[in-house]
Amino acid sequence: MRYQKGKSYKDSRVEGGMLVVSMTITDSALMDWIFSGEQSEISIGFMSDIVEQRGTYQGG
């Protein structure tokens, strides 16, 4: 695929006040840039308001 650089998964979670999600990067140039340490954070493509509270999601 011409524009695809990787994919993200549905395991988003809060760690240390940050929203975190697992990703697979498939573009070697992007991998090099990430591992260079030049950028420490990336956007996962949306904004959210995090509400930390106990409970269950969809009965789970």
Summarize this entry quickly.
This protein has 60 residues and is α+β, with helices and mostly antiparallel strands.
Walkthrough of the structure:
The structure is a single chain. The protein is α+β, with helices and mostly antiparallel strands. It has a domain at 6-35. The chain is built from one helix and four strands. The strands form two sheets. It has a two-stranded antiparallel sheet. A hairpin with a 2-residue loop joins strand 2 and strand 3 (18-20). The radius of gyration is 15 Å and the shape is elongated.
Jot down its keywords.
13% helix; elongated; two-stranded antiparallel sheet; 1 helix; 60 residues; alpha+beta
Task: Spell out the blueprint of helices and strands.
Elements: E1 6-8, E2 13-15, E3 18-20, E4 23-25, H1 28-35
Antiparallel strand pairs: 1-4, 2-3
InterPro entries: UCP029215
Pfam families: DUF2213 (PF09979)
Query: What summary fits the major beta sheet?
Result: 2 strands, antiparallel
Major β-sheet strand ordering: 1-4
Counting DSSP H or I runs of 4 or more residues, the number of helices is 1
Silhouette: elongated
InterPro entries: UCP029215 (IPR016913)
Pfam families: DUF2213 (PF09979)
